[in-house]
Design a protein that fits this description.
heterotrimer, A mainly alpha, B alpha/beta, C mainly alpha, A: mainly alpha, MetI-like fold, 2 domains, two-stranded antiparallel ribbon, 2 strands, C: mainly alpha, two-stranded antiparallel sheet, about 0% strand, Phosphate_PstA (chain A)
Chain lengths: ~280, ~250, ~290
């Protein structure tokens, strides 16, 4: 019987209190940050703000070109990264037999995921902008962001494909379907909820990025029309407004818009996954 | 006369010798039961008949398996065509996470049929033949996963017969089901046997006597005895058969 | 109907998508090194890494102060984030009632999804004045940067740790409780040690995020190229250096910034190796049956 300074019952009570405190602190942090930004930022956000172009370098006016830039660049990233990520996930789960190849692919995805965003930015500058001659453009930005979203999409898709029950594959093969037909008609559809989540997460990462695109996308205040035009996604605009002290009010507004987008994405991901799961379980 | 003839079949998984010198002739349009204790190769045998063992690494075979006179392991045998002719119902019902309609239509679509009316007709026929139509006709677009276990298994049977196979392999189709569902499926087998050659692996000896005309008794990877079900159960020729049937082991 | 040839083609195509990430990494390494090479060649590796003066207009490119700056920020934020995050993860996995957990999970997800610029902005507007008025100094500095980074890496550590804690087999917990241990004893002696490899992974991920973060740090860290002597002193991280000066750098200066990225690579690699060593060691101990 060891000597104890505090009885187990007391330490249990103390620790429970500490645990509760940590949970509450975490919730409070979120509420403070989001609450403050929305409180100060929402007043600046109105239809005019969202639909008009910036005036006087952003001192006045709205953020329409920035919203469009963000949409352009994120969609582009999603369109490029999704087939690559899902293809890689399918290959790894359904075709790759050699341990070495599997390890190599996993290593590739993990390493890509841990590269800091500014390094992606430098690569984007030296490769897409200069070497490939794509210039400071939405296209260059989309390509860089595709690289950043790729590991996320790959990792989530890979888990989804892996957890499709083997019995589905066997049922399909036994009916005379080929391997690819089985993948394309049964496995991928069954993995769609997971894949969709992965794509949304990947695109959420893309839409939040500023450091990766700041030297790639051009930072123009004008409305981008084609993907070869320069643009300025929302996070980058916030950074410029805040650090160059241009307009606190508009900075708050931009921040509020970003926060709302993020909240929408989080809610969307959760409800989508819930709804699809319920439908497929036949309830 | 015989739909399938198995000649001197030996099956190996890496170094393990699972099936030894199997010789068996399966007559057309009858039900043949495969009985024997767990782990003695019945499932492996039945999976050899539609080449489902091909997907398991380490699988190797010697000998011949003739379907209507042609060796199914011939290099120029199309596995996809083979599986159209030889269908399989699994031990645990495995409908796809799709609607009831799409589950049955799956095989048709995969084999190239795309006429909407034809598919609808065939789906209804198959569901009727599987004695499931009345229970699902009003909810064909609902998920198949919402059906009960017994219904799911009948759905899997419907899915298999939709592509009009000649042979249906059943690997312990009732072992995951309750007694009432089991009876329904046994009735179904009775109905189907006039049009299909059925091979059923079963643990349940009463089931074997109820549904099958011929029986083969597997023990340790070999067929100890095979013949008319009546004869195997009433007057087994081999002592090991008799011991198994009377429950001395199993 | 699909022919065998087409099946093979599809397989090859998928293989290419699979090794795409490897191709990308190789390209990244090639291009970054290509642009960064001049500074190593022209200025010297030791001068670059250990030089204490960063003054491009005078031709001085020593990044040592920034290596130290990055390490300080990372470790200070880990020091604050790790205990808080693990407590929160344990709370979610073992202590909290289901309702609380249902609230916390989306909260963590939302925290994880907020863009880093927004955190930086918040730090700039709220935290900097707060620190200035309560602790003195300019408000821009090591402490402020670490606090913002703490909030940014907490979601990562919490969610991965929580997963690790939840996947500890129920049997262990039940056995402990059945022997009369309290919940806290069970957590401390059984659940936490069993989840330790996963928790260490979460810390590694958090560390990776902290050292790679750029804009949030720039907005609150003060960005003076000196080694801070107190936590209120301004500091500049490797990532900040690149982002601040890239807009107007040319020639050797331009190459020096790419060189900074290369050093950043190596610092991250080194940290990962050390961290994985601990992870591996813990895994061996647990695997050997010690709890």
């Amino acid at each position: 019987m060891s000597f104890r300074i505090i009885s187990p019952k007391t330490s249990q009570k103390i620790m429970t209190g500490i645990f509760w405190a940590s949970g509450i602190v975490t919730v409070l942090i979120l509420l403070i940050i989001i609450g403050y930004i929305l409180m100060k930022g929402l007043p600046a956000v109105n239809l005019e703000f969202l639909l008009s172009e910036p005036v006087d370098s952003g001192r006045a006016g709205g953020i329409a070109p920035m919203i469009v830039s963000s949409l352009y660049v994120t969609l582009l990233a999603g369109i490029i990264a999704t087939p690559l990520g899902v293809g890689a996930a399918v290959y790894m789960t359904e075709y790759a037999t050699e341990e070495r190849i599997v390890k190599l692919i996993k290593f590739g995805a993990e390493t890509l995921a841990s590269i800091p965003s500014i390094v992606f930015g430098l690569f984007g500058l030296s490769f897409f902008v200069v070497f490939l001659g794509l210039g400071w453009s939405i296209l260059s930005g989309g390509l860089v962001l595709a690289l950043m979203a790729l590991p996320t999409i790959f990792q989530v898709a890979q888990v989804s494909v892996e957890t499709v029950p083997q019995s589905y594959r066997e049922g399909s093969l036994a009916l005379g379907a080929t391997k690819w037909e089985t993948i394309y008609r049964v496995v991928i559809p069954a993995a769609i909820p997971g894949i969709t989540t992965g794509v949304i997460l990947g695109m959420a990462r893309a839409i939040s990025e500023a450091a990766a695109v700041m030297f790639v996308v051009g930072s123009a205040l004008s409305m981008p029309v084609s993907i070869f035009d320069p643009g300025r996604p929302l996070p980058l605009h916030l950074y410029v407004l805040a650090t160059e002290g241009i307009s606190l009010k508009n900075a708050y507004g931009t921040a509020a818009v970003l926060v709302i987008i993020v909240l929408l994405i989080t809610v969307l991901t959760n409800t989508l996954v819930d709804r699809y799961r319920r439908k497929m379980m036949g309830r | 006369m015989y739909r399938i003839e198995v000649e001197d079949l030996n099956v190996y998984f890496d170094e393990a010798h699972i099936l030894k010198d199997i010789n068996l002739k399966i007559p057309k349009n009858t039900v043949t039961a495969l009985i024997g204790p767990s782990g003695c190769g019945k499932s492996t045998f039945i999976r050899t008949l539609n080449r489902m063992n091909d997907v398991i690494s380490g699988f190797r075979h010697e000998g011949h398996v003739y379907l209507d006179g042609k060796d199914i392991y011939d290099p120029d045998m199309d596995v996809v065509e083979l599986r159209k002719k030889v269908g399989m119902v699994f031990q645990k019902p495995n409908p796809f996470p799709k609607s009831i309609f799409e589950n049955v239509a799956y095989g048709l679509r995969v084999h190239g049929y795309d006429d909407r009316d034809f598919i609808e007709e065939r789906v209804e026929e198959s569901l009727r033949a599987a004695a499931l139509w009345d229970e699902v006709k009003d909810k064909l677009d609902k998920s198949a996963l919402g059906l009960s276990g017994g219904q799911q298994q009948r759905l899997c049977i419907a899915r298999t017969i939709a592509i009009e196979p000649e042979v249906i392999l059943m690997d312990e189709p009732c072992s995951a089901l309750d007694p009432i569902s089991t009876t329904k499926i046994e009735d179904l087998i009775h109905k189907l046997k006039n049009d299909y050659t059925i091979i059923i692996v079963t643990h349940n000896m009463q089931q074997a006597t109820r549904v099958s005309k011929y029986t083969a008794f597997f023990l340790h990877g070999e067929i100890v005895e095979s013949g008319l079900t009546e004869q195997i159960f009433i007057e087994p020729r081999d002592k090991r058969t008799e011991d198994y049937i009377t429950g001395r082991f199993g | 109907m699909i022919s065998k040839a087409r099946e093979k083609l599809i397989e090859k195509g998928l293989f290419i998508t699979a090794i795409f990430s490897i191709i990308a990494i190789l390209l990244i390494i090639v291009f970054i090194f290509r642009e960064g090479f001049p500074i190593f060649q022209g200025y010297g590796v030791t001068n670059f890494i250990f030089g204490m003066d960063w003054a491009p207009s005078d031709g001085k490119y020593g990044i040592f102060t920034m290596i130290v700056g990055s390490l300080y920020i990372t470790f200070l934020s880990l020091a604050i984030a790790v205990p808080l995050s693990i407590l929160c993860a344990i709370f979610m996995a073992e202590v909290s009632p289901e309702i609380m957990r249902r609230i916390l999970k989306p909260v963590i997800e939302t925290l994880a999804a907020i863009p880093s610029v927004v955190y930086g902005f918040f730090g700039l507007i709220i935290l900097v004045p707060f620190i200035r008025s309560s602790l003195g100094g300019t408000g821009f500095g090591l402490l402020t940067a670490s606090l913002i980074l703490t909030v940014m890496i907490m979601p990562t550590i919490i969610s991965v740790s929580e997963d690790a804690l939840r996947s500890v087999p129920l049997e262990y917990k039940e056995a402990s409780l059945a022997l009369g241990a309290t919940q806290w004893q069970t957590i401390r002696k059984v659940i936490f040690p069993a989840a330790l490899p996963g928790i260490i992974t979460s810390i590694i991920l958090g560390m990776g995020r902290a050292i790679g973060e750029t804009l949030a740090v720039i907005m609150v860290a003060g960005n003076v190229t000196q080694i801070p002597s107190s936590i209120l002193d301004p500091v500049r991280a490797l990532t900040s250096n690149i982002a601040l000066e890239m807009g107007y750098a040319t020639g050797l200066h331009y190459s020096a910034l790419f060189g900074t990225a290369i050093i950043l690579f190596f610092v991250i690699m080194a940290l990962l190796v050390v961290a994985n060593y601990f992870h591996y060691k813990k895994k061996i101990v647990i695997g050997g049956g010690y709890l």
